[in-house]
């Protein structure tokens, strides 16, 4: 075949690929517009919000896309309403009935108290999105308390200055290709669970991917504190949440959720070996201590779960394997600790009205 003929064939092939790419791009963008999905770039907290009625094990998300039963706009008389904000830790990887916020509601309803905990957790969000969600939707539910679940694993670094949009995020096709590649290289378990039975021992990430993730997150434990601005920004968002709550007479409580590397000595050893950092350079309790001290200065009620989880982890696993989210036991422990802390605030029969 002559070179001109080869050139014509090559040009025809390139044209077909280009047209196919453009058509695929249009189709994917149209699909994402009518059926939003976390795969494609969107700066809003709604990017990762669940689809209304989507299945999650044997449960279905409510009509707002939250992992909870339907929210009643009108609060019943005599009911103490808690709006719970957080990321995937609040949303949870366990079934609805085992989620710590579901269990917290059950635990607080004892002694004649009428309490409801509205789980508004959205995966892959951070303090900035918690503030936006509270202002846009949470306060409209007329809560008596706002409970913010702050995950040390990434809620500090989520407040870092936004990185420039990656080149592949400008293309729906390239984004989808990257997602499929990551799905095959990094994940071992399932990412969604419609109609599936829950397995508390099923790992999510591969060994390599999970260790890499925990190593990347562990830079916040360095004593020289390279993320001072990120820490300060995280506190600033929580203070703005406090200001919103105070202006409406709403109580605010922040619960500090530890990452697995803060709890598991075995995982700590692997991370420190990979970082090649001497023990004196790393303090796995540093972010919790910093946040607790700053919230005390701001007079924000705070519950740090780290010490309870470190003690309990000696006897039983509290996290899903290679996942960084709590398993059933971890959710149960968190609910118990939180219930003890909050019960004193809520009172019981004959007790004074809860603080407003």
Report the principal-axis shape: globular
Give a short account of the largest sheet.
5 strands, parallel
Order of helices and strands: HEEEHHEHEHHHEHHHEHH
Task: Identify the strand order in the major beta sheet.
Answer: 4-3-5-6-7
Give the name of the CATH architecture of the largest domain. 3-Layer(aba) Sandwich
**Can you count the beta strands?**
7
> Helical stretch count?
12
Uncertain runs are: 183-192, 348-356
Coarse structural class: alpha/beta
Strand content: 5-15%
Give the number of domains.
2
CATH class of the largest domain: Alpha Beta
CATH domain topology of the largest domain:
Rossmann fold
Overall radius of gyration: 23 Å
- In CATH terms, the superfamily of the largest domain is SGNH hydrolase
Helix content bin: 40-55%
Q: What is the straight-line distance between the termini? A: 84 Å
Taking all residues together, what is the mean pLDDT?
Answer: 84
Structural summary, described in words:
It contains 12 helices and 7 strands. The strands form 2 sheets. The chain has a 5-stranded parallel sheet with strand order 4-3-5-6-7, with helices on both faces. A two-stranded antiparallel ribbon has the order 1-2. With 356 residues, the protein is an alpha/beta fold. It has 2 domains: 1-35; 43-346, Rossmann fold (3-Layer(aba) Sandwich), CATH 3.40.50. It has helices at 3-34, 88-91, 100-108, 127-138, 172-186, 207-217, 228-247, 260-263, 265-275, 286-297, 306-312, 328-346, and strands spanning 55-56, 59-60, 80-85, 115-119, 145-151, 251-257, 301-304. Helix 3 runs parallel beside helix 12 (328-346) and helix 4 (127-138) packs parallel to helix 7 (228-247). Helix content is 44%, strand content 9%.
